[in-house]
Design brief:
With 67 residues, the chain is mainly alpha-helical. Helix content is 43%, strand content 0%. The chain is elongated.
């Protein structure tokens, strides 16, 4: 078996990194269907105790499920 040089392994690793990084950029539209729901959930968590938003009466934080 032939030993592979460090330079060849580094080149192979770099090519694999570029290929993996290009995968999310391949489709025309990114599949972020649930992204708005996650942003809304984070906004609710951020303002849960803020009286100006009055969300503490509508939502309860549960460790079993974030929804």
């Amino acid at each position: 078996m032939r030993r592979v040089s460090r330079r060849a392994l580094f080149a192979l690793f770099t090519v694999c990194e570029i290929a993996i990084a290009a995968v999310p950029l391949a489709p025309r539209y990114l599949p972020l269907i649930d992204f708005p729901q996650h942003v809304a959930q984070q906004a609710i968590w951020s303002h849960l105790s803020d009286p100006a938003f009055a969300m503490d009466g509508r939502f309860v934080v549960s460790l079993a499920t974030p929804y």
